[in-house]
UniProtKB/TrEMBL annotation:
GO MF annotation terms: acyltransferase activity
InterPro entries with a match to the protein in the record: Thiolase (IPR002155), Thiolase-like (IPR016039), Thiolase_AS (IPR020610), Thiolase_C (IPR020617), Thiolase_CS (IPR020613), Thiolase_N (IPR020616)
Coiled-coil segments: none
Lineage of producing organism: Bacteria, Bacillati, Bacillota, Bacilli, Bacillales
Domain Thiolase N-terminal residues, every copy: 4-252
Keywords for this protein: Acyltransferase, Transferase
Organism of derivation: Planococcus liqunii
Keyword Transferase tagged: yes
Name assigned to this protein: Thiolase family protein
Every Thiolase C-terminal domain range: 259-381
């Protein structure tokens, strides 16, 4: 039976919205990541059979199939195709699943899967152009924004503002500790950026984590979506810019090329979930992917569950019965940021390197997605 392996994975540092990548085009940022990926793996660009990138706001500099334009900018031969997909916040994780499926089917042997998003240069919802949901949809479902969904999850699971803020402080502390200890250095591609006044510098450190983030500081923030609610800018993910990618191969092709894979993809799952609560999908997706893998949550050495809002990973922990000491150990999106289309493979790259660092075996990745969906992936370090 064919097996899909991850040969290499890289990402850019994540920039705050209107931060260090404010003057960097997303197609060019993605191109830098694609080029570094094949360079580190030591393969020819022309050997890649497809490039699948996730991107949520596919307009302006992210329009026109950014996977294809980024590949051409990066110098891939014109016969290497590219396709851009949107499964909301899990877009690049879905890119991995599609790439793995192509390899398992025998259609391809070498695929790049990744994602890009500049929430600075292509603002969130700009692709919607002010369009409202269809009445045929709203007659069937209550369609609300994700912030209100997070409020409802907090209410349903009885999470207090203090619990959410404490989790958020932990995210910042873990992220800052990881940066200080150099845990992210190997996975990040340094990027040359230019300021508005033309000054150039090389950036290679995530811009999001804020020193001095305390429960007292977060407790002073106003709620954003509900005056009497619990969700603030401090216990939600940051809007961000970034790019990430992994190189997938069949095990046979990796062996033929003399490459040593970092991990294998054990199981993949995708689910739909309540489009009103919207963000609870990782619970069902985790159960499904564990069942497909024939594994238990206790078999996982690390898990990454995207911190879209603090109630999301907390509800996941509660219902899955997972170990909080294995969850987002180097910080999550509350501290590090959430560049929508890039987040899936960003987290996968970090999970891969964390398993290598601790010599762990299994890792799990789960991400909630807009309109009520979630992807989950299990990898095994080799």
């Amino acid at each position: 039976m064919r097996e899909v392996v991850i040969v290499e994975g890289v990402r850019s540092a994540v920039g705050r919205r209107k931060g260090m990548y404010a003057n960097t085009r997303p197609d060019e940022l993605a191109a830098l990541v694609l080029e570094e990926l094949v360079n580190r793996a030591g393969i020819e660009k022309g050997a890649v059979e497809d490039i699948i990138l996730g991107c949520v706001s596919q307009v302006a500099e992210q329009g026109g199939n950014v996977a294809r334009t980024a590949a051409l900018i990066a110098g891939f031969p014109d016969y290497v195709p590219g396709v851009t997909i949107d499964r909301q916040c899990g877009s690049s994780q879905q890119a991995v699943h599609f790439g793995a499926q192509a390899i398992l089917a025998g259609d391809m042997d070498i695929v790049i899967a990744g994602g890009v998003e500049s929430m600075t240069r292509v603002p969130m919802f700009s692709n919607m152009q002010g369009a409202k949901p269809s009445k045929k949809l709203t007659e069937q479902y209550e369609i609300i924004n994700q912030g209100l969904s997070a409020e409802r999850i907090a209410e349903k699971w009885n999470f207090s503002r203090e619990q959410l803020d404490a989790f958020s402080v932990q995210s910042h502390e873990r992220a800052q500790q990881a940066i200080q200890n150099g845990h992210y250095e190997r996975e990040i591609v340094p990027v040359e950026v230019e300021s508005a006044d033309g000054e150039k510098q090389l950036v290679s450190v995530d811009e999001g984590p804020r020193p001095g983030t305390t429960e007292e500081v977060l407790g002073g923030l106003k709620t954003v979506f509900d005056e009497n609610g619990v969700i603030t800018a401090g216990n939600a993910s940051q809007m961000s810019d970034g790019a990430s990618a992994v190189l997938l191969m069949s095990r046979e092709k990796a062996d033929e090329l003399g490459l040593k894979p970092k991990a294998r993809i054990v199981a993949r799952a995708v689910v739909g979930s309540d489009p009103t609560l919207m963000l609870t999908g990782p619970i069902a997706a985790t159960r499904k992917v564990l069942e497909k893998a024939g594994l238990q949550i206790g078999d996982m050495d690390r898990y990454e569950v995207n911190e879209a809002f603090a109630p999301v990973p907390l509800a996941w922990l509660n219902d899955i019965g997972a170990d909080p000491e294995k969850l987002n150990v180097n910080g999550g999106a509350i501290a590090l940021g959430h560049p929508l289309g890039a987040t899936g493979t960003k987290l996968l790259v970090s999970l891969l390197h964390e398993l290598e660092r601790i010599e762990g075996r299994y890792g799990l990745l789960a991400i909630c997605e807009g309109m009520g969906m979630a992807n989950a992936t299990i990898i095994e370090r080799l």
